[in-house]
Structure to design on (113 residues):
């Protein structure tokens, strides 16, 4: 039997999301979401993005070392993830973008597919 922490490890969650088709890695720049490696993309505005799920992880030695992994789906069907630190070390651009997505009233869809 796996221990609860092991089940919720970042690596395990990322592996499961990849199996569920969340294969793109995203970044935020200039208020838009971009898939890494796709320099041709014009990016996605907050209204073109749905947060499907999110996972919080605490640091092993310091609970303040928290990060959040978001599973995201775009309006044209691209599925992937983006992560950010929580609190002091958070990426302001990522946090602002995701907060805007949430403020647009996006509901979580736990089905992943």
């Amino acid at each position: 039997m796996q221990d609860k922490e092991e089940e919720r490890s970042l690596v395990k969650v990322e592996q499961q999301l990849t199996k569920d088709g969340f294969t793109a890695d995203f970044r935020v720049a200039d208020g838009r979401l971009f898939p890494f490696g796709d320099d041709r993309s014009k990016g996605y505005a907050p209204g073109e993005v749905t947060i499907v799920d999110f996972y919080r992880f605490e640091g092993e030695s310091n609970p303040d070392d928290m990060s959040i992994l978001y599973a995201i789906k775009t309006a044209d069907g691209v599925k992937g993830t983006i992560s950010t630190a929580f609190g002091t070390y958070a990426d302001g651009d990522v946090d602002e973008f995701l907060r805007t997505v949430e403020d647009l009233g996006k509901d979580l869809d736990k089905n992943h597919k």
